[in-house]
What does this fold into?
Amino acid sequence: MQLKKFMIGAALACSALILTACNSNNETKTSESSAKTTKSSVDLSKVDLPQLDEGVAADEYLVQMDTSEGTIQMKLFPKQAPKAVENFVTHAKDGYYNGTTFHRVVEDFMIQGGDPSGDGTGGESIWGEGFKTENSDQLYNIRGALAMARSQSRSSNGSQFFIVQNNKNVSDGLAIQYYPERIIEAYQNGGAPNLDGEYTVFGQVTEGMDVVDKIAAAEVTTNTGGENSKPTNPVTIDTISILQEPSDSKATDSSNSTEAMENSETTTTSTN
It folds into this structure.
């Protein structure tokens, strides 16, 4: 059993390295979570954990992603990740994601999409340039987490995103000094804790994890970076509909647009 858990952890770590690579010629960095190595100044036993709430709060978005494999519903967290949520919602409303595919799938890890070019080398934010990674003590890469994909720069978030699919227990070694106890329990159901602190988690699947699992289980071949993750028959995102918006979303979006432009830097996002 311990050997099996070690192999799962090693596979996730290997996949995490590839997630940050620009291409096969770039040096990759490790994705060891800062949350694991730096004790939080926040009392983690008292923080709100919106990913674990069954309902959709009044200050959250609810979106529906219709794919060629089925429907996925997700709630988004604008308070914890304002720039990522505004970027995703605006792209969704503009039809930016319509017709795009899940171009990268790694079973027992994640599925990745949001690239109009379809190969992991393209896509941009609504501001035309990369924006900074947003971290929160309230959001983690548990199974079903929706997060931004990026290249090595923490300011290279563009349009690409991924949904964590792993359903194996990865809670071993997670300490209450660095993780809320309820999140450690959630990691028993799967996830990728080695990504915590490295990528912006901004949503959580509420319905349709069976669809995510189907997409992750697709037949794949080797991509240009040498990873066995390119679907032979990619699943298409048909539309993304906004089912619920926070009542104050307009005011929030306006302020966040200004902040994101001030804090962003020009980068090219490539997660292949």
The CA atoms of residues 35 and 42 lie 12 Å apart. Residues 1-18, 20-35, 251-272 have pLDDT under 50 and may be disordered.
